[in-house]
Specification:
Elements (H helix, E strand, L loop, with lengths): L10 E12 L2 E14 L6 E7 L5 E2 L4 E6 L5 E8 L13 E8 L7 E4 L5 E6 L5 E10 L2 E3 L9 E3 L5 E10 L6 H4 L5 H4 L12 E5 L18 H5 L7 H4 L9 E4 H7 L26 E9 L7 E10 L7 E2 L1 E2 L10 E2 L4 E5 L5 E9 L4 E6 L18 E9 L8 H4 L5
Parallel strand pairs: 5-13, 14-15
Antiparallel strand pairs: 1-2, 3-4, 3-6, 6-9, 7-10, 8-9, 10-13, 11-12, 14-23, 16-22, 16-24, 17-18, 17-21, 17-23, 19-20
Length: 414
């Protein structure tokens, strides 16, 4: 069998010799160079990369898992064939090259490839947390310019063909989706979540894909369907404090919707400055940090309370359940299911706050819900100050932390 190569002839002269016997007479013919056959090249095939961590294999467009450490120097090894049907020679005359097409801002890592073996290594600089995307290019009818393959360059023929294999890998803990990493807008503080006996209402903060969700209803594309779950929780009063299953009477904060529409300068990126085109408020990677806060602004000696919970569902078609906090969460170090009726209380003179903070990594949608601010401080003046205490929710990318420069610091997917 023959193959198309840089060291082989790719033009062949075909000759025939025939022998035919009839009536006791044998006739022989010799046809020298009867016709010419020119071989055409086929592009390289079967490209993949084998992870240096666990030998798992990935093809173009995939992301390698698990994640790499910041000190990793070996990423993996690309492999492929030259496209020949000759399996004895389908690894001949191949040369690899690499391009880093995406990396976290601030990364100094230089990724190189051994042109013969396809091994990818960090040859200088350092990896930082985030997602890297590399393109391994396999070129056939090509050789190295030096005897030591890894130090040379690919010398190709006019007939050479190339095929790309695009691979992503994550270092450390990847950044969350950017709508989460950017944090809450000024709209959060503007919501009146003070005493329900005054002008305030309960709050729901929705971390979901849809920017249209704006209430807790059980039907329709604008409803989160949280109330149907909450009102059935034993030992709670969400069913009465948030209304019926319609749950329209809420202060609502949709993470994606607010990030897309805010006029806050911190959300204006690029030139001309504009809000990024956030595609989700749900969590697809990284660690989501949620801090539920009861903020007492009045200095009067008054008492306030509220209860809240945090819910999770895999996607909009799934049912809600209690979210699971990660081990190491500040207010639930052992991790586990979030309580259904977590209390926050403020009392005494002076302004103050109480908060509970948790970390989450399960990919999907979340909702933070409270039952309204109540207590003796909610009595009408002069006995109380209904506007003197509010419930708010802070959120951020736990890996990146709260940032004043989200346009550059938040490198996760939109």
């Amino acid at each position: 069998m023959i193959y198309f190569g840089i060291k082989t002839s790719n033009v062949w002269e075909i000759s025939f010799e025939t022998s035919f016997t009839t009536g006791g007479t044998t006739y022989e013919d010799s046809l020298s160079n009867a016709f010419t056959v020119s071989l055409s090249n086929s592009a390289p095939t079967s490209l993949l990369i084998t992870s240096a961590i666990d030998s798992s294999t990935y093809t173009t467009g995939q992301t390698m898992t698990p994640t790499f450490s910041n000190t990793a120097t070996s990423i993996g090894t690309f492999s492929g064939k030259n496209g020949s049907a000759d399996t004895a020679n389908d690894l001949q005359d191949l040369c690899w090259s690499i391009t880093t097409t995406a990396s976290p801002g601030g990364s100094t890592a230089v990724l190189s490839i051994d042109k013969c073996t396809g091994a990818v290594t960090v040859t200088s600089g350092a990896l930082i947390n985030g997602t890297y995307t590399i393109t391994g290019t396999l070129t056939d009818v090509s050789v190295s310019s030096t005897p030591t393959c890894s130090t040379g360059s690919c010398v190709s023929d006019t007939a050479s063909l190339s095929t790309d294999c695009i691979i992503s890998f994550v270092v450390g803990t990847a950044d969350t989706d950017q709508a989460i990493c950017f944090g809450e807008t000024s709209a959060m503080a503007a919501l009146d979540t003070s005493c329900s006996a005054g002008t305030g209402k309960p709050l729901e903060v929705f971390f979901g894909v849809s920017s249209s969700v704006n209430n807790g209803t059980i039907t329709g594309t604008t409803g989160s369907k949280t109330q149907a779950y909450l009102s059935a929780l034993p030992g709670t009063n969400y069913g009465t404090t948030r209304g019926t299953a319609s749950a329209l009477d809420l202060r609502y904060y949709n993470v994606r919707s607010e990030a897309l529409s805010t006029s806050d300068l911190g959300f204006k990126c690029g030139l001309p400055p504009a809000n990024p085109l956030f595609t989700t408020g749900a969590l697809t990677q990284g660690v989501l940090a949620i801090k539920a806060r009861l903020i007492k602004s009045t200095v009067d000696n008054l008492d306030y309370t509220t209860n809240f919970t945090i819910l999770y569902r895999a996607d909009a078609s799934a049912g809600w359940s209690q979210a699971t906090a990660e081990v190491g969460s500040p207010d639930q170090p052992a991790g586990g299911a979030i309580g259904t009726f977590i209390a926050l209380n403020r009392s005494g003179a002076g302004s103050s706050e109480e908060f509970k903070e948790f970390y989450f990594t399960a990919v999907g949608e979340y909702a933070v819900c409270n039952n309204a601010v109540t207590g003796p401080g909610c009595l009408a003046a002069p006995a109380g100050t209904p506007a003197g205490c509010e419930f708010q929710v802070d959120f951020y990318d736990q890996t990146t932390g709260v940032t004043a420069a989200p346009c550059t610091d938040c490198t996760g997917p939109l």
